Every structure is written in structure tokens, then in C-alpha cells.
Amino acid sequence: PGEIVALLGPSGSGKTTLLRAVAGLLRPTGGRILLGKEVFFDGKKGVFLPPERRNLGLVFQSYALWPQRTVYENVAYGLRLRKVPEKAVRERVLGLLDRLGLTGLERRYPGALSGGQQQRVSLARALAYDPKLLLLDEPLSNLDAKLRDQARVWLRETLKATGKAALFVTHDQGEAMAIADRIALLNEGRMEQVGTPEELYRNPKTLFVADFLGNPNVVEALVVGLEGSTARLELAGFPLRARAMGALVPGRLAKLVLRPEALRPAGVGEVNALEGALAHSLYLGSHYEHWVRVGDALLRFYSPLPLGEARVRLAVDPEAALAYPG
Q1: Percent of the chain having pLDDT more than 90?
Q2: Helix and strand numbers, DSSP H then E, in the chain
Q3: CA-based angle 92:112:130, to the nearest 5?
Q4: Less Cβ crowding at N or C end of the chain, within 10 Å?
């Protein structure tokens, strides 16, 4: 209860399929789905609880509001379906609209609302009948970029305030990291890793996880030797130490993951360093994005300042460099 979990992954990885299976909108071919001790689905025992008996709140990507019903009627619908007394319906609906910043919009129709307001009405409707679990499918994807950034904070605060467990689908890693307590990263129908946003970002168990989160540099480097959990590598003739993230074999190539924010101009005497020619510099407002060619590799890193030299030495802490079997 109270935990927010994101189902994250590229298109086609199985996020929405999994969410629909939990909701009961599709029937799996096997396995089990449980909420606490309540069995929603058990393939071996032939148990399949229909969606209307699962007591789940659903927020769809399209909001799925009834255009011919007012905001009040949209939110009240589920309560009236459950034969809740009208006085209790009114108290519940007006209380939710107030909490979600929709007071005064009760008589409006969805077509007269902004995307952000429609999203809040959809969430209010899902919360109205006090579901055990909230399911959200790409809840912010219909908002423009600036409003989406603001909505991340609002959505997390709102979900936390309800005390409900929430499971939401997104392909946006920034959205998942900002909103979720835990992330389940899917790849072709399989869970690659489940953990807190920081765990997945700092300790990615597989190359897929490391490559998917943060848009890092991924280059090939030769494994020279191993010292416990540290790998000694060579990239374009430069010796480099990195964390060994799997069974590396000396003499073979490894995939070296270097996040742009982990690279920095090398100071005097720094040994875990590379050198190359400055290929591109892009000014992005808050920082510069520099591209440095080291051998055949093109490495990207960030800096608050422009670079005046044609040759650049870059350093990285061994703990921030990750080496995976090639």
C-alpha cells in the first residue's frame, strides 16, 4: 500500500499487455496474478476473476471520459453503479474534485477542459469508489512537454496522498524515475531488473538496463585483466579501470558503458583517463554537449563551459565505468 511501481521499457516490450492482464482486460495463457491473497488469475486452477470484480481503478492514456457527461457525472458514475446513496456520492465527488484542483468545473463537459484537467478528472473517477490498486497506462503522454514535467510532481504527490498502491506504464525513463518508488524494466516480455530508480541507474545488472537508462556511451574495449570486481581494460591504447559487471574474459572485448555525466576534463596526474580530438560542441542552454573522438569511439560528455582545445583528456572514476561481457 502506498507504493508506486512503473512498468518501463521500449515499445513492444509487454508493458501494456501486463497491465491489461492485471486489469482483467485480457486473459493470460498461464501463470498467476494475485493482489495480496486475492487470486485474480491462476492458469493451472482455471481461475479468472472478471474485471468488474477486481476493484481496480483504471486511468487510460486517452482518459476515456464520457463526452456527454459533465465532470461531476463522470466521477460519480462508478459510485452510482455500486448503488451508493446520493448524499454520499456528492460528498465523495466534491471532496475528490477539491483535492485534485477541479473545484468549480463540476458542470463542464470534457470537451471544454484542457488535457491536464481531463487527466485529473480521469484520476478522480478512478479514485471515486476506493479501489485497492490504481492502474495507469501512459498517464502523461497526451500532455505537452512543459506541462508533462509539472504533472510528474503533481501525479506523484496525488498518488502518495491517496495511500493506494499504483502500477503505471510508461516508455519515458525520466517519468518513471521521477514518479516511481520502484521500476520494473521490461525487455521483449521479460523483466530485466526490478528496483528503485537509483538502483537501476547506478547498478544496472545487464547491458540492456545500463544502455536503456540515461542514453550513455557504449563502446568496445579490450579486457586486459581482472582484479576482483575491477576490470583492467584498454580503449584506443589507453589503460582504463572499470567495474566488472559479469563474467569478463581477458583477451576478449567487453562493452564499456560511460555515462556522459561521469566523464570530465582530466586534471593533472589523473590516471583513469582517455585522450582524443574534439569533434563537436553543442550549446544547449544549461550546458554544453561535447563529442570527443577517441580512436574509433565517439564519446559524449557535458560541461558548463566551452572547450578551447582541439585535443581533450577525459577522466572517469573506475566505479562510474561499467564493463559488460561483449
Answers
A1: 70
A2: 8, 19
A3: 20
A4: N
Residue scoring higher pLDDT (196 or 58):
196
Which value, in Å, is the radius of gyration of the alpha carbons in the chain?
25
Residue with cell 508506486: 4
Grid cell locating 233? 581494460
What predicted TM-score, i.e. pTM, was given to this entire model?
A: 0.86
Cell of 220: 568496445
pLDDT for 188 equals: 95
**Of 160, 80, 148, 95, which Cα lies nearest the Cα of 119?**
148
Mean pLDDT of the chain: 92
**Grid coordinates of 320:** 562510474
Q: Are 23 and 51 in contact, with CB atoms under 8 Å apart?
A: yes
Run of H or E including 33: strand 32-35
pLDDT at residue 44 greater than cutoff 90: yes
CA 262 to chain centre: 21
DSSP letters along 279-299, please?
A: EEEEE-SS-EEEEEEETTEEE
d(CA 38, CA 54): 9
